[in-house]
Amino acid sequence: MAHARPTPPSPAAGPPTADPPIADPKAAPGPTAAPAAALHLSGVRLRYDHLLALDAIDLTLQPGQFVAIVGPSGCGKTSLLRIAAGLLLPTQGHVQVLGDTAAAAQAGKRLGLVAQSPALLPWRDVRANIDLPRSINRAAGRGPQGTTPALASTDALIRLVGLEGFEQARPHELSGGMQQRVALARALAVNPELLLMDEPFAALDEITREQMRYELLRIWAAAAERAPKTVLFVTHSVTEAVALADRVVVMSARPGRIRAEIAIDLPRPRRQTDERSPAFLDAVDRVRALLRDAPPDDAAHGTTHDTAHGAPDSPAPDGPRP
Ligand SMILES: Nc1ncnc2c1ncn2[C@@H]1O[C@H](COP(=O)(O)OP(=O)(O)OP(=O)(O)O)[C@@H](O)[C@H]1O
Ligand SMILES: [Mg+2]
User: pTM for this structure?
Assistant: First the structure.
């Protein structure tokens, strides 16, 4: 059963000159901050020059939660993840990651980011790319051999993402989907407490993509036996969001705001066959209805998005998409 929780409308954005000064990430958290949260965003606003990309973002992830974000292309999902990863400072608002600043969590390798475009080192082969963060940690005297136990060996991670036989391949010798799988294994290698994933399966074929989502759930559940692992997962596939998440956050565009949130109360562990259950299809319907109401970035051009980019999203409960 899924429950929609509409988000109250936020005040309209002011003129470009009305922005308060850039928030200091070291400043004390606001009165509503929850220090124990894995991620806490409060009143986050982001402006790129004259474009207000994000506004009034309030989002809290409790340790161990799996939260998916869906929304039209250009609504600010990647920007939100980059703020959570400490790679981008919000124009306004508070950000806390694991009770610390996002930059400190990033520096301490307590969070992992699987970016929308996998940034692999071209001169390193698959094995060396996956092992890169661990070798940095070893050099710095922290990480898998220090305080954080390794999630899996490099060989196990290579098997997990299905790249056996390509250990010595360089990134230019891999397809886009294979490069994404290397980036996923690399992010998992340091066993981060908070995993930020930006459309990590977008370049995969549909069958591999389905397998990967249940592999990810298996890893997440196995890792959670030792310590809570929190995931914030951006996707254009509503089916993927519902299959993975405890909560699906739906964003609207221009500026990006959290429009509503749907709790996914489907039992775990989840299986691929669950995707045909009435409760699953009901949750998919609810998310899709909210997305239809969220004006897409290119609405001016008359296009519609059930799942932007036409990402694989089967079965389509309400008929095939154009
Ligand atoms: N570095 C930048 N400078 C200026 N504008 C930017 C920059 N990065 C993103 N934007 C703008 O901010 C808005 C949000 O971009 P973002 O990449 O966060 O969207 P998104 O929801 O991840 O989109 P998609 O689903 O297509 O990946 C867009 O209008 C984009 O043009
Ligand atoms: Mg993006």
Answer: 0.80
Please tell me the residue having the least CA distance from ligand 1 atom 4.
48
Could you tell me which of 144, 89, 112, 136 has the C-alpha nearest to residue 38? 112
- How does pLDDT run along the chain (322 residues), one tens digit per residue? 444 554 443 433 333 333 444 444 444 444 554 447 999 999 999 999 999 999 999 999 999 999 999 999 999 999 999 999 999 999 999 999 999 999 999 888 899 999 888 889 999 999 999 998 888 777 766 544 444 456 678 898 898 888 999 999 999 999 988 898 899 889 888 888 999 999 998 888 898 889 889 988 988 887 788 788 999 999 999 999 999 999 999 999 989 999 999 999 999 999 999 999 999 999 999 999 999 975 554 443 333 333 333 333 433 333 333 3
Quote the ligand 2 centre to 155 CA distance (angstroms). 30
Tell me the best of 50, 78, 232, 306 to mutate to test the pocket of ligand 1, counting ligand atoms within 8 Å of each CB and taking the most.
78
Residues 6+ apart with CB under 8 A from 282: 1, 2
CB within 8 Å of 249: residues ≥ 6 apart: 59, 67, 68, 69, 70, 258, 260, 261
77 lines ligand 1 (CB under 6 A): yes
